[in-house]
Protein backbone atom coordinates (compact mmCIF):
# COMPACT_ATOMS: atom_id res chain seq x y z
CA UNK A 1 0.00 0.00 0.00
CA UNK A 2 1.39 3.40 -1.01
CA UNK A 3 0.45 4.99 2.34
CA UNK A 4 2.49 2.45 4.28
CA UNK A 5 5.42 2.95 1.92
CA UNK A 6 5.21 6.74 2.36
CA UNK A 7 5.16 6.29 6.15
CA UNK A 8 8.30 4.17 5.93
CA UNK A 9 9.89 6.93 3.83
CA UNK A 10 8.95 9.48 6.50
CA UNK A 11 10.53 7.37 9.24
CA UNK A 12 13.70 7.01 7.19
CA UNK A 13 13.87 10.77 6.52
CA UNK A 14 13.38 11.48 10.23
CA UNK A 15 16.12 9.04 11.24
CA UNK A 16 18.63 10.09 8.57
CA UNK A 17 18.25 13.85 8.88
CA UNK A 18 16.89 14.36 12.44
CA UNK A 19 13.88 16.34 11.19
CA UNK A 20 10.12 15.93 11.42
CA UNK A 21 8.41 14.18 8.49
CA UNK A 22 4.69 13.43 8.59
CA UNK A 23 2.35 11.59 6.24
CA UNK A 24 -1.38 12.01 5.78
CA UNK A 25 -3.33 9.75 3.42
CA UNK A 26 -6.97 10.00 2.43
CA UNK A 27 -8.61 6.77 3.66
CA UNK A 28 -10.84 6.57 0.57
CA UNK A 29 -7.97 6.74 -1.93
CA UNK A 30 -6.91 3.30 -3.12
CA UNK A 31 -4.05 2.93 -5.57
CA UNK A 32 -3.53 -0.59 -6.82
CA UNK A 33 -1.27 0.01 -9.83
CA UNK A 34 2.32 -0.83 -8.93
CA UNK A 35 3.85 1.57 -11.48
CA UNK A 36 1.74 4.44 -10.19
CA UNK A 37 2.70 3.69 -6.58
CA UNK A 38 6.39 3.49 -7.51
CA UNK A 39 6.36 6.84 -9.32
CA UNK A 40 4.50 8.51 -6.42
CA UNK A 41 6.96 7.09 -3.89
CA UNK A 42 9.98 8.25 -5.92
CA UNK A 43 8.43 11.70 -6.38
CA UNK A 44 7.91 12.04 -2.62
CA UNK A 45 11.42 10.72 -1.96
CA UNK A 46 13.03 13.25 -4.31
CA UNK A 47 10.96 16.15 -2.94
CA UNK A 48 11.84 15.24 0.66
CA UNK A 49 15.51 14.87 -0.25
CA UNK A 50 15.47 18.28 -1.98
CA UNK A 51 13.74 19.84 1.04
CA UNK A 52 16.55 18.72 3.32
CA UNK A 53 19.51 19.04 0.96
CA UNK A 54 18.69 22.32 -0.78
CA UNK A 55 16.01 23.83 1.45
CA UNK A 56 17.53 23.05 4.86
CA UNK A 57 14.03 22.07 6.02
CA UNK A 58 13.29 20.99 9.57
CA UNK A 59 9.74 19.83 8.80
CA UNK A 60 8.41 17.95 5.78
CA UNK A 61 4.78 17.00 5.28
CA UNK A 62 3.57 14.43 2.72
CA UNK A 63 -0.11 14.44 1.81
CA UNK A 64 -1.80 11.95 -0.50
CA UNK A 65 -5.42 12.84 -1.02
CA UNK A 66 -8.19 13.61 -3.47
CA UNK A 67 -9.53 16.76 -5.05
CA UNK A 68 -12.76 16.09 -6.94
CA UNK A 69 -11.98 13.30 -9.45
CA UNK A 70 -8.22 13.83 -9.23
CA UNK A 71 -5.69 12.57 -6.71
CA UNK A 72 -3.00 14.80 -5.25
CA UNK A 73 0.45 14.10 -3.84
CA UNK A 74 1.69 17.21 -2.02
CA UNK A 75 5.03 17.54 -0.28
CA UNK A 76 5.42 20.70 1.81
CA UNK A 77 8.48 21.85 3.73
CA UNK A 78 9.55 24.75 5.94
CA UNK A 79 12.92 25.25 4.31
CA UNK A 80 14.46 28.32 2.72
CA UNK A 81 12.18 28.04 -0.29
CA UNK A 82 12.64 27.52 -3.96
CA UNK A 83 14.32 30.10 -6.19
CA UNK A 84 12.08 32.05 -8.57
CA UNK A 85 11.61 30.30 -11.91
CA UNK A 86 14.09 32.53 -13.74
CA UNK A 87 16.81 31.68 -11.16
CA UNK A 88 16.26 27.92 -11.14
CA UNK A 89 18.90 25.58 -12.39
CA UNK A 90 17.24 22.72 -14.23
CA UNK A 91 18.58 20.11 -11.88
CA UNK A 92 18.38 16.41 -12.47
CA UNK A 93 16.02 15.92 -9.52
CA UNK A 94 13.51 18.39 -10.94
CA UNK A 95 13.68 16.78 -14.36
CA UNK A 96 13.15 13.34 -12.83
CA UNK A 97 10.14 14.53 -10.81
CA UNK A 98 8.66 16.11 -13.92
CA UNK A 99 9.29 12.92 -15.90
CA UNK A 100 7.61 10.79 -13.23
CA UNK A 101 4.57 13.07 -13.15
CA UNK A 102 4.25 12.83 -16.93
CA UNK A 103 4.62 9.02 -16.82
CA UNK A 104 1.52 8.77 -14.64
CA UNK A 105 -0.38 11.31 -16.72
CA UNK A 106 -0.07 13.91 -13.99
CA UNK A 107 0.87 17.54 -13.63
CA UNK A 108 3.75 18.68 -11.45
CA UNK A 109 3.73 22.10 -9.81
CA UNK A 110 6.50 23.52 -7.63
CA UNK A 111 5.78 26.75 -5.77
CA UNK A 112 7.00 28.76 -2.83
CA UNK A 113 4.97 28.03 0.29
CA UNK A 114 2.66 30.72 1.69
CA UNK A 115 4.84 31.00 4.80
CA UNK A 116 8.17 30.06 3.23
CA UNK A 117 9.46 26.70 2.19
CA UNK A 118 8.43 24.84 -0.93
CA UNK A 119 5.26 23.03 -2.01
CA UNK A 120 5.61 20.25 -4.59
CA UNK A 121 2.24 19.12 -5.95
CA UNK A 122 1.53 16.28 -8.36
CA UNK A 123 -2.08 16.06 -9.50
CA UNK A 124 -3.04 12.84 -11.29
CA UNK A 125 -5.86 10.48 -12.15
CA UNK A 126 -5.70 7.59 -9.64
CA UNK A 127 -7.39 5.22 -12.11
CA UNK A 128 -5.23 5.44 -15.20
CA UNK A 129 -5.54 2.56 -17.66
CA UNK A 130 -1.84 2.77 -18.51
CA UNK A 131 -0.66 1.58 -15.10
Written description of the protein model:
This protein is α+β, with helices and mostly antiparallel strands and 131 residues long. 37% of the residues lie in helices and 27% in strands. The chain has 3 helices and 5 strands. Strands 1-2-3-5-4 form a 5-stranded mixed beta sheet. Strand 4 (107-112) and strand 5 (118-124) form a beta hairpin. Helix 1 (2-17) packs parallel to helix 2. The longest helix is centred in the N-terminal third of the chain and has 20 residues, at 34-53. The relative contact order is 0.19.
Sheet of most strands: 5 strands, mixed
Tell me the structural class.
alpha+beta
Would you count the extended β strands for me?
A: 5
| Cα distance spanning the termini | 15 Å
Order of helices and strands: HEHEEHEE
Order of strands side by side in the largest beta sheet? 1-2-3-5-4
On the 0 to 100 scale, the average pLDDT is 90
The total count of helices amounts to 3
**Low-pLDDT sequence parts:** none
- Cα-atom Rg, whole angstroms? 14 Å
Specify the helix fraction band.
25-40%
From the structure above, extract its key features.
3 helices, alpha+beta, single chain, 131 residues, five-stranded mixed β-sheet
Question: What is this structure, in a nutshell?
Answer:
This protein has 131 residues and is an alpha+beta fold. It is 37% helix and 27% strand.
Strand and helix layout:
Elements: H1 2-17, E1 20-25, H2 34-53, E2 59-67, E3 70-77, H3 92-103, E4 107-112, E5 118-124
Parallel strand pairs: 1-2
Antiparallel strand pairs: 2-3, 3-5, 4-5
